[in-house]
Amino acid sequence: MIIVMALEATPEQIQAVVERLRSIGAEAHVSEGQKRTVIGAVGDRGLIQQLPWEAMDGVERAVPVLKEFKFVSREFQAADSVIDVGGVPVGGGHFAMMAGPCAVETRDQLMASAEAVKKAGAVILRGDAFKPRTSPYSFQGLGEEGLRYMGEARELLGMPFIAEVLDPRDVELVSEYADLIRVGTRNMANFTLLREIGRQEKPVLLKRGFTATVDEWLNAAEYIYKEGNHDIIMCERGIRTYEPSTRNTLDISAVAVVKRLSHLPVIVDPSHSGGHRFLVAPLAKAAVAIGADGLLIDVHPAPETARVDGEQALLPDDFAELMDELRKIGNAVGVTI
Length: 337
Ligand code: PEP
Ligand code: MN
Known about the structure:
Blueprint: E1 2-5, H1 11-23, E2 27-32, E3 37-42, H2 45-50, E4 59-63, E5 83-85, E6 88-90, E7 96-100, H3 107-120, E8 124-126, H4 144-157, E9 161-164, H5 171-177, E10 180-183, H6 191-198, E11 204-207, H7 214-226, E12 232-236, H8 253-261, E13 266-268, H9 270-274, H10 277-290, E14 294-298, H11 316-333
Parallel strand pairs: 7-8, 7-14, 8-9, 9-10, 10-11, 11-12, 12-13
Antiparallel strand pairs: 1-3, 1-4, 2-3, 5-6
Helix pairs in contact: 3-4, 3-11, 6-7, 10-11
The protein binds phosphoenolpyruvate (PEP) and manganese (II) ion.
Residues 102, 272, 308-309 line the site of manganese (II) ion.
């Protein structure tokens, strides 16, 4: 249940609702917006719904939420969330291009990629120090050394960076360095990790699990939000279907579905969706056209030597060309890229 307070509700009236909720064993999550206060009630649904909330002074309306997730829903917050990533706004009309290598391999490889994406107009650098690999024998990332190189690139280019965290024990380390923490597709339902990430302060990019429904994905975001971290960006990166010609099937409609259900920004990763270089541009264009709030794109200075995902990485020149094309689509749909 979401209890929407009237514009003129007093602090005492808000407190009375909170106490009423507590008296029936429910939790009250108070969100003070610019205009009005909204209270999310979590607890025994039947018990909460049977009380006459609208009869209490200062309450404008009580809205039952049919979905399990509450705080990330549009009912809870009608306006789009705008997430600040190291000074770069994402969402609510602010489009963010995030690009760089899939993995940090060497200092030189990272710098070459970072300089190229910055020059082409990317605003957030991507590059992982911890890689989730299907095979335990594949390159697993440079660890803290990789995060240090990312930090150097940020200082040099004035560009915040995003990096994945795989293990709850590394959350502190990654959040010390990175401006945006990424939860990968394999960890979307790792609730221990989600809780841990919800307790630190850096914004979070939550990828969709490759077998997750939109509801499950939004519930994963709810785990993070409920722990106190409200700065969440959703990332559609394709789901596993019976179609083998692409690495995953980009569920482009999920962008519009999530934006309808939730106030959180939604971006698209066309690199991990398609899994092939030739698919990155068409999928990226579709994402801009449908209203995504940003893109996450693999760019490598020499993809043929890449230790991870070379087949889907764009060359710097291809990325610059794509940026030009995306700007045209952005102009047509009223988005500045
Ligand atoms: C990535 O972005 O490098 C990555 C591993 O993505 P996903 O978790 O979507 O596979
Ligand atoms: Mn990758």
